[in-house]
Amino acid sequence: NFDFASRVERVEPSATLAISNLANELEAEGIDVVDLSVGEPDFDTPENIKTAAKDSLDAGDTSYTSSNGVAELRAAIAEKLQADGIDCTADNIVVTPGGKQALYEIFHTLIDSGDEVALLDPAWVSYEAQAKMAGADLSRVDLSPYDFQLEPALDDLAATVSDDTELLVVNSPSNPTGAVYSDEALEGVRDLAVEHDITVISDEMYDEITYGVEQTSLGSLDGMADRTITVNGFSKAYAMTGWRLGYFCAPEEFVSQAGKIQSHSVSCAVNFVQHAGIEALRNTDEAVGEMRDAFRDRRDMLVNLFADHGVDVPVGDGAFYMMLPVDDDDQAWCEGAIEDAHVATVPGSAFGTPGYARISYAASQERLQEGVERLVANDYL
Ligand code: PLP
């Protein structure tokens, strides 16, 4: 009989839970489920990164590191971000156990109870939960009328944010839409952020996974260096979800405040995992390129398959997700699709955008094809 804190009571259980429970039940019955709900690459971590971790363990890198991260890794991250046009040094970097923890620390560093956080819907599920746990009130801009592009929604964004907005979250390439926002869109965000003195989180978790377009870092735009917190990690680009390694880059005064949360909670990211991260950043371009090519081929195949069945899916140029238009009751559609067709997807309402199902194409072409065939055979397409 606990008197729970409002911070947990304000957060809903994940809308994806019902789907993964159903998938687990079916699999326990021996039924083959085509799982297009996963948010992680289906590839193994590249061999050179694993070797670096083993070597690091053998070298005895098993103690705590400095709380903000191993100096050489922070330097390698700063180098990567400088190449993206962000003016930073190792002192601007905090290495965290996953990008999710980076976001957690950022929200808790900036948000007081009642502060306003603006999201672009559909938005990755944990932004809302984390913002609410920090006490935020949310304002939201719906990108679904614009095929999930940001540029045509700038007027809506301008009408939503104000001097009361503390923080805006931008995620390009986007989970769940795959959209990569244009430079014009990002410049529009910059103008609003400067006008209303808004801090912006730029979640660039999928920046290595783009197809024929370059992802621009918000923090590289004039006027944004002092107000952008750039978040990234190793999970998606290097197929390292289980290693738990991420980071953020922020002005030094922000780093010293957020560093208190890091040092009093997780202390630091895992020592030998950080050493593997150095190898990932410095020597993995080829493997990253191969994964990118595979994702691109799958995206193209899937879009064509949907088109063959008369379904027009807004195609993004990055990440490994797309939003399939489905019934208004997307939760029922997703539950039905898994029960009848044994295909698992995630309801768009989990991302603030009902009427869609998020498809992850981090699965082989055979499985994607099988998934579409099953949806067609069961009248879900
Ligand atoms: N940001 C986005 C948009 C994501 O999709 C994810 C993972 O699904 C994360 C952040 C967090 O990733 P991790 O904590 O594995 O670094």
From TrEMBL:
Identify the cofactor(s). Answer: pyridoxal 5'-phosphate
Q: Name one GO biological process term.
A: amino acid metabolic process
What's in the keyword line of the UniProt record?
Aminotransferase, Pyridoxal phosphate, Transferase
Q: Name one Pfam family in it.
A: Aminotran_1_2
Matching entries from InterPro entries are given as: Aminotransferase_I/II_large, AspAT/PAT-like, NHTrfase_class1_PyrdxlP-BS, PyrdxlP-dep_Trfase, PyrdxlP-dep_Trfase_major, PyrdxlP-dep_Trfase_small
Respond yes or no to whether keyword Transferase is given for this record: yes
Q: What class of enzyme is it?
A: transferase
What are the Aminotransferase class I/classII large domain coordinates in residue numbering? 32-375
Summary of subunit composition and partner proteins: Homodimer.
This protein's name: Aminotransferase
